From TrEMBL:
Family: Belongs to the short-chain dehydrogenases/reductases (SDR) family.
Keywords: Oxidoreductase
Tree of life domain: Bacteria
NCBIfam families: PRK06197.1
GO molecular function: oxidoreductase activity
The keyword Methyltransferase is annotated on this UniProt entry: no
Full protein name: SDR family NAD(P)-dependent oxidoreductase
Annotated transmembrane regions: none
Length: 310
């Protein structure tokens, strides 16, 4: 992995990638670099204006490519279902599903379906999306599902009895729990895929400390100007670029030696640098915890992974 960069991405000609939250930040970079290597990319974004603008910008930056925008609101399960139905109707393969979109450290709120926002968007939305797209993933040789987590997962394990943080809410604790859920989901998905002999690879990645609007969106929405300024200073002086932050995701999505249930992140203290194997909290490798989260996620989303229920 040493020195691995976007120029090391293998040829992606003939492959199709869906990248959630790809109108900006590491999601946009991931989509752009995959397109540069020949992939057909679908920008799955909540905001139609920003998503369309991103597709237009990508088409200019990568001449000859035809990026496609499709609306996807991970905080609304009906939107997730519509996206999956439309995708399967219009596409016959899915080589890369990159579950990248997310929200961070928001005040307490609920999604359209009544879930705590961070858990609902960061985990349940992607859980439902992956399950609904499972048939096309299983039908595509060598497909991969890459879910973007965070080193912040180490702050807190999930509370299986209070997944929606109804007992007590802390914005950073809830974020950490949603990122733990991302890793537990990857762990359990990889286990279930292996059990049926599938060659679909489920892996995870994290960007380290990358300068994106993820850090400032929450404070900006609440009018917490001092916090927003602090985050902007951190992005400017300490964070690596979004382009660098996307490398672990791109490595997990394309490198030939990526193993199921691997976790890739920046080499230097998990903050910045070339992609490498990343440390993860022991609770993210707990089979029983992964199984229980899976069962609850199926119940909450009403999305069943046909053929993968163990």
């Amino acid at each position: 992995m040493a020195g691995w960069s976007a120029s090391d991405i293998p040829d992606q000609t003939g492959r199709t990638a869906v990248v959630t939250g790809s109108n900006s930040g590491i999601g946009y970079t991931a989509a752009r670099e995959l397109a540069r290597r020949g992939a057909r990319v679908v920008l799955a974004c909540r905001n139609e204006v920003r998503g369309t603008e991103a597709a237009d910008r990508l088409a200019i930056e990568v001449p000859g490519t035809e990026p496609e925008f499709m609306r996807l609101d991970l905080g609304e399960l009906d939107s997730v279902r519509r996206f999956a139905e439309t995708y399967e109707r219009e596409h016959d393969r899915l080589d890369l599903l990159i579950n990248n979109a997310g929200v961070m450290a928001l005040p307490y709120g609920r999604t359209a379906d009544g879930f705590e926002t961070q858990f609902g968007v960061n985990h349940l939305g992607h859980f439902a999306l992956t399950g609904l797209l499972l048939p096309v993933l299983l039908g595509t040789p060598g497909a991969r599902v890459v879910t973007v987590s965070s080193t912040m997962h180490s702050v807190s394990n999930i509370d299986i009895n209070d997944l929606n943080s109804e007992g007590r809410y802390g914005r950073w604790t809830a974020y950490a729990r949603s990122k733990t859920a991302n890793l537990l989901f990857t762990h359990e998905l990889a286990r279930r895929l292996a059990a049926i002999g599938s060659d679909v690879v489920a892996a995870a990645a994290h960007p380290g400390y990358a300068a994106t609007n993820l850090q400032t969106a929450g404070p900006n929405a609440e009018g917490r100007r001092a916090v927003e300024r602090f985050m902007r200073i951190g992005n400017r002086y300490f964070a690596q670029s979004a382009d660098a932050g996307a490398l672990p995701t791109l490595y997990a999505a394309t490198a030939p030696d990526v193993r199921p249930d691997s976790f890739t992140g920046p080499a230097l203290l998990g903050w910045r640098g070339s992609p490498t194997k990343s440390w993860r909290a022991p609770w993210t490798l707990n089979d029983r915890a992964g199984e229980r989260l899976w069962e609850e996620s199926e119940r909450l989303t009403e999305v069943a992974y046909e053929g993968l229920n163990a």
